[in-house]
Amino acid sequence: MPRKLTSADDLKSLQTRLAKSLDSGKPRISVCNGTACRPYGSNPVVEAFRATIENKGLQDRIDFKVTGCHGFCERGPIAVIEPGNIFYQKVKPEDVAEIIEKTALNNKIIDRLLFEEPSTKTRATSQASLSFYKGQSRVILGNNLKIDPTNIEDYIAIGGYSALSKALFQYQPSDIIEIVKKSGLRGRGGGGFPTGRKWESCRNAHGDIKYVIVNADEGDPGAYANEGLLTGNPHSVLEGLIIGAFAIGSHQGFIYVRNEYPLALKNITAAMEQAEKLGLLGKNILGSGFDFQVRVNRGGGAFICGESTALMASLEGKVGEPRAKYIHTVERGLWDRPSDLNNVETWANIPLIINNGPEWFNKIGSPSNTGTKIFSLTGKVNNTGLVEVPMGIKLRDIIFDIGGGIRGGKKFKAVQTGGPSGGCLPESLLDLPVDYDTLIKAGSMMGSGGMIVMDENNCMVDVARYFLSFLEEESCGKCVPCREGILRMRQLLNEITEGEGKESDLALLEEVCQCLKDSSLCQLGGSAPNPVLSTLKYFRDEYEEHIKLKKCRAGVCKALITFSIIEEKCPGCGQCVKACPSGAITFLGKRKPVLLDQSKCIKCRTCFDICKMGAVKIE
Amino acid sequence: MKDQINAIIKKYDSDKSQLVSILQDIQSVYNYLPRSALDKVSKKMNVPRSQVYALSTFFRAFSLKERGKHIVHVCLGTACHVRGGELILDSLERQLDIKNGETTKDKNFTLESVNCMGCCATGPVVKIDEEYFGHMTNDKVEPMLNKYRGKQ
What we know:
The complex is a heterodimer. By secondary structure, chain A is an alpha/beta fold. Chain A folds into five domains: 123 residues, 3-Layer(aba) Sandwich (Glutaredoxin), CATH 3.40.30.10; 202 residues, Rossmann fold; 90 residues, Ubiquitin-like (UB roll) (Roll); 90 residues, NADH-ubiquinone oxidoreductase 51kDa subunit, iron-sulphur binding domain (de novo design (two linked rop proteins)); 57 residues, Alpha-Beta Plaits, CATH 3.30.70.20. Helices cover 39% and strands 14% of the residues of chain A. In chain A, the strands form seven sheets. Chain A has a five-stranded mixed β-sheet with strand order 14-13-17-15-16. The longest helix of chain A is centred in the last third of the chain and has 18 residues. Chain B is an alpha+beta fold. Helix content of chain B is 45%, strand content 12%. Chain B is built from seven helices and four strands, in the order H-H-H-H-E-H-H-E-E-E-H. In chain B, strand 3 and strand 4 form a beta hairpin.
């Protein structure tokens, strides 16, 4: 670890030295070990690389980096080799020796590890040329590939903390606020409030003690963009936070991290310790006279704590209940003091804006929606992962170009954005530009960047019921409209999915929705109707089918479907017989179709999943 | 137990605003929040028992019931839901013969659902202790559990 830095020049000379060692000309292997790669077994791959490099004594000839999320999670574990930007996917421990020997040391490509484009059946060698990466502008996430998130030197080598140095020594706090305002940056947590204006209000608010807070309580189920960023590049968030604290005049910051993100928690904590050792955090930062401390708090797994006032209550050690915002938190927030809270991604944008200028930022995206946005593209799409795109890009471009279309040649049905506060948009709206204002007009919202794609096998009534049961559990119970309204809506939706819905239910649902919108205390209740209203608006026919025809066209709602065996297709292999947990399928002998007993069938779908012949029918 | 609780409280300088973190640390030692531990926290930190209890029941990360040796977390986030996460939960409930939130009789497994674990691209996802299992299907459930049943 280098010695403590006490001036801007200290940082600069360290940067120059580290950047030089980065350009050593050695081949570099970056392996993703982000949270999403772990279910694929990235840990053993990392271990295999370490062991092979050590056993062969190649430490001086190969630069090996374990990094955070590379984005293309569908194809993990991923290894990228420089020079050549060679992209290997689904890497296994047994591939490791060959990658080192052939590619890293001898520049040879291993064809079988390249990604095959499903549409053209061609194999691209470089990462940048993959259709998944081509349409993206990875200004924030791109750095994940270059750094080991647990090593501050890597971040400094690529220019890290130079924005902080610039902010401290070249600008007044008011200049920084002006720059952020000019950039047009809007809150990436979903609300889209202009960040510069928020900072300005907090700076101007009365009081000596002010707080800055990182909201890393990414509670939207199905969104993990903040996780990927905080785990993969924690220093970028920390640097943004320190700059913001300097601009606002705060000396104490908080980072509120979701309890379900152990790796993010570990990496940000390590980042803070290293920054403090180097004099980039704590007392007299870089010799500027500016003091700033940060504390990390773990969330407790409550969705509501993503709401600013609830999060602050939780930071105070209280139950995470929101309060009415007659007085904004920038005036009276945490412990009744002026507090500025921004999302992880918002903070990570700050160093880029300071370094490159607001004009650079303005050129990305569309006029009132500048910059990029990270989405977690998941669900029934071919290429799932974290994608970063300029704002204003069409939904279609994200889902079909970057995402590679729908899995298994199925038909697209809907895309859900904005988490439980957002809505489901149908195919007819796929050409909408993705920005804060357009999505709200369409009945959804940006949220923290979840984008869940659904196909013909997803039932939209079931999706609405799913979100409402999520919200029912997560409602804090403080205000009546949210606590009781969500419960009633969920009951109605349950009845509809169980085939007991009445025609009058739809009007009743709409009425309850309006009540929640008008009278809930916070946005959790106020936006809870969105999943119901958007599905009612765009997929009303599915609701009507459930009610009038007792039919679920997607084959999801258990009460409305039956499983049967297509006799012509069944070879009598017996796989489903063994797998059936309720003993509902009987083996009648080889090459004879099996027999399914409806009275015993629990509709668990095991036989459907296991049958390779497609001989199980769901009606 | 007293020493352990005192050490945890000391780590946070008895800071009342760190109550959630203190409870989390206690839970990571005992796997749940024992009643006696909550009493000690209340007394030692001079916080009403009602507040400690309110926090322990408000956040879903906390459990007041003793939990099993292995915690099985099944993700029911949206991305996992649309790929059939609930069917995996059903299957786990059947195989373990317990409901969501319960512990097996032999105290080997506790089954809990979570709303997102941050690896949505690989859904449906199950996590046992620190190990993640992606792209789950019903037929993968039993071999996965067997790994933690002491037979490979």
